[in-house]
Amino acid sequence: xxxxxxxxxxxxxxxxxxxxxxxxxxxxxxxxxxxxxxxxxxxxxxxxxxxxxxxxxxxxxxxxxxxxxxxxxxxxxxxxxxxxxxxxxxxxxxxxxxxxxxxxxxxxxxxxxxxxxxxxxxxxxxxxxxxxxxxxxxxxxxxxxxxxxxxxxxxxxxxxxxxxxxxxxxxxxxxxxxxxxxxxxxxxxxxxxxxxxxxxxxxxxxxxxxxxxxxxxxxxxxxxxxxxxxxxxxxxxxxxxxxxxxxxxxxxxxxxxxxxxxxxxxxxxxxxxxxxxxxxxxxxxxxxxxxxxxxxxxxxxxxxxxxxxxxxxxxxxxxxxxxxxxxxxxxxxxxxxxxxxxxxxxxxxxxxxxxxxxxxxxxxxxxxxxxxxxxxxxxxxxxxxxxxxxxxxxxxxxxxxxxxxxxxxxxxxxxxxxxxxxxxxxxxxxxxxxxxxxxxxx
Length: 442
Description:
The chain has 8 helices and 24 strands. The chain is of the alpha+beta class.
């Protein structure tokens, strides 16, 4: 994600070696991570009443030794059933996991490990109870709805609208969405496989390698946008680009198509082949808000290149947790935005700063990821050479495309590929924020 004014330094976070966080005692309850197998949801927007009714089924499995499942949904739940049994809503309440995490839901039921369970939820879809979320855009016979994800605030991924998990988890998501109470034509734009089953009625299927930050979906009145598309050859394969430009964005479909084709050719030559399936979905709107998704983006024109590169780093090779979210922003600023620091500055030892925290449940990517993170990669380039760094980051992408990967794995990869043990010290001081020499504490 990028805002056109890149923030100044702020302190951030460090990596978890396990794929999922450890169980945690919260308010006398043992919160245990789950593995979601699938989420199946339905939403009906009623423009006569400006209300939206939602239902969702979450199929999941307990990890470890079992316990009380933890997940998130930032909506006021009306009813819940567990495997068809009605349970009190009060027994599935938000609990505070700390400053970096915010709240998550704990179901106060001891569940056995290795078993498959289904939680069913009924609720009215409203503005999510998430920091800086947007309300649903109700209008006179019109609807504007955007998933509007953000990695700079906790609780701002899929959990805003539907039950979801932390970033370690991949699961299939199917959505049935309909609008009633209007004859106005609307468009649904998504990076899922979309089927129009009737007027103002769609089914969207997202693949099982998506995580909570992967899904893009925008509903907008058709008259408010210009649409277009095209195909071009990339690495010998035909790729389809679909472009939706809001009328007030000040850009043409042709300009967007030309830039996407140019940037994708450059990135594929330097970083590796585009791994996403389906069309490349681009939505252009005004302002400074932009966000990356798997093979797609909703973006201001000035951030298009940045967000497109995230389909290689961030939504191609994916951070395993938000302790790892720093490196995709850092590398995107360094490589696609040209955010290099002069070599003379990288030779001087600066103060330690933390980009990856030790809190396994952290859910905030720090704003320091942009500048401080790109400065870190400038230090790496100053140590092993920029050509070597680019080559090793390309092999990192090739190895981890469409998979989740941790900061520790990035460190190990760069050290092993370069053969330069000095990189441990750079991670020690400028990623984990540690004073002194790497290994001295051992």
